[in-house]
Write a structure and sequence with these properties.
There is one protein chain. The chain is of the alpha/beta class. The protein contains 14 helices and 14 strands. It has helices at about 25-30, 45-50, 60-70, 100-110, 130-140, 165-170, 180-190, 205-235, 240-245, 270-275, 280-305, 330-340, 360-365, 385-395, and strands at about 15, 35-40, 75, 85, 120-125, 150-155, 175-180, 200, 310-315, 345-350, 360, 370-375, 395-400, 410. The strands form two sheets. Strands 3-2-1-4-5-6-7-8 form an eight-stranded mixed beta sheet, with helices on both faces. Strands 11-10-9-12-13-14 form a six-stranded parallel beta sheet, with helices on both faces. It is elongated. It binds ligand SAJ. The site of ligand SAJ has 21 residues, from helix 8.
């Protein structure tokens, strides 16, 4: 395909389809490293605000990257011809716990008319294994061209952790699955323009599966930690100390217990891996254990309170520390459980703006509370230690579900 811009042979015109948490940083890293990048999204508002210099979400280092990359990046309201297309659209979970591929399918449909000889299509969304080969490929082949023969097709999973996305996008190893060697090589070349980690090459379905395995491993490990926490409560010992000691073993790495697992990834991806296999159990059980934690935290709080109806303040609405993302946050479930059990509940968070519960300022949220649940270990709360200790002395029950204050308050997983 002819070059559509002036630049070295390594620089390409790349179109990112889906400008979300992963699409935007990826687009900007490619643009910063010399590619001519256009970004498309179905949300017209996003296009307008990006072209006006506004980012739709907070992420460490993203504003600086935006400034550095802007001369090579443009958000576009309609798709246009490029040399490579990168699909980074969401894959929600259906009510039946299956991977909802509707956005992936419509993104593939929308780029199909632009598939020419030599064009590369990359899928980055987290998907059920087999999607690139069996869902995306047939849609793109409606162009009349064949994947592997005429055009190139690859799957690359994103691995960056929200809160440290840019650093991890640059430094983590990447797994590149390609439909053939040419697809693998060109995709590897594109990613090596900004990735400093190692690039590993495989086929598309293996790359898709690896992504699901990584998040299943983390979810199951956390479930194990949560089960250990419940056992330690019965044994009247401290799970945090026990895990720390167990992790001295050279082959043991137990994660931390907590009020539940939130976010868009660990709550869904493990289920994509097993959705077709009734006989699977560990992954599903891990999900159940992690989903049981918000209710368990409320039961612990009630035990501390020793009374039926109370005013409970929850510190933190984000799904984890220092982020503004509250998707699948355990706090949402805890607040619902509180209400269902007749308690009054208040929620505070220094970062979260969008949440089903009203977000109150810290002082307002804790005012008159009988119990305070520290649900998220935001760094901001470290400076609240003396205020919380004072409240505890005055009889307010404080439950530190993340053990962020190292045992100064009652914690989850301690008898
Ligand atoms: N959590 C615990 N205990 C822990 C670690 C986490 O309870 O020891 C909780 C967190 O509080 C949070 C949830 O788990 O509610 C998920 O947080 P996380 O930090 O484990 O993961 P995510 O969802 O932010 O990002 C994960 C990462 N996957 C892995 O580390 C294997 C990230 O690298 C992926 O790119 C991301 O999913 C994704 O997009 O798939």
């Amino acid at each position: 395909m002819e070059k559509s811009h002036k630049g070295s042979d390594d620089e390409m015109k790349i179109c990112i389809v889906g400008l979300g948490y992963m699409g935007i940083p990826t687009a900007l890293l490619l643009a910063k490293n010399g590619h001519q990048v256009v970004g498309y999204d179905i949300m017209a508002e996003k296009i307008k605000s990006l072209n006006n210099g506004q980012l739709p979400f907070d992420e460490k280092g993203l504003p600086e990257l935006f400034t550095q990359a802007r001369k090579n990046f443009k958000a576009i309201p309609t798709l246009e011809q490029a040399e490579a297309y990168l699909i980074a659209v969401p894959t929600p979970i259906t009510r039946e716990n299956k991977c909802d591929l509707s956005h992936v399918k419509s993104a593939a449909e929308s780029i199909a008319p632009f598939i020419r000889k030599g064009v590369l299509a990359i899928l980055e969304s987290t998907v059920k294994a087999g999607t690139t080969e069996h869902v995306v490929r047939p849609i793109l082949e409606k162009s009349g061209l064949k994947a592997g023969k005429d055009f190139l097709l690859a799957y690359v999973s994103e691995k960056a952790i929200p809160g440290n996305t840019i650093h991890e996008m640059i430094n983590n190893d990447r797994i590149i699955g390609g439909i053939d060697e040419k697809s693998q090589q060109l995709t590897a070349k594109i990613y090596s323009s900004f990735v400093k980690g190692k690039i590993h090459i495989t086929d598309c379905t293996t790359a898709e599966t690896v992504k699901l395995m990584e998040n299943s491993y983390r979810d199951a490990n956390i479930a194990l930690a949560n089960e250990f926490a419940k056992v330690c409560e019965q044994l009247r010992i401290n799970v945090w100390d026990a895990i720390k000691l167990a992790n001295h073993h050279p082959r043991v790495n137990i994660h931390s217990p907590g009020p539940g697992v939130g976010g868009h990834c660990l709550t869904t991806d493990p289920l994509f891996l097993v959705e077709d296999y009734d006989w699977t159990s560990i992954i599903k059980t891990a999900r159940e254990i992690n989903n049981s934690m918000p209710g368990h935290v409320i039961s612990l709080t009630e035990k501390m309170l020793g009374k039926k109806k109370a005013r409970i303040a929850i510190l933190g609405a984000a799904y984890k520390k220092n982020v503004d993302d509250s998707r699948e946050s355990p706090t949402e479930s805890m607040a619902k459980t509180c209400r269902a059990r007749g308690h009054e509940v208040t929620v505070t968070d220094p970062y979260v703006k969008k949440f089903p519960e009203k977000i109150l300022p810290f002082d307002e949220a804790i005012k008159g509370a009988d119990a305070i649940i520290i649900a998220v270990d935001h760094d901001d709360y470290l400076e609240k230690e003396s205020a919380l200790l004072q409240l505890q002395q005055q009889g307010v029950k404080v439950l530190d579900t993340r053990n962020m204050f190292n045992g100064k308050f009652k914690t989850l997983g301690k008898g």
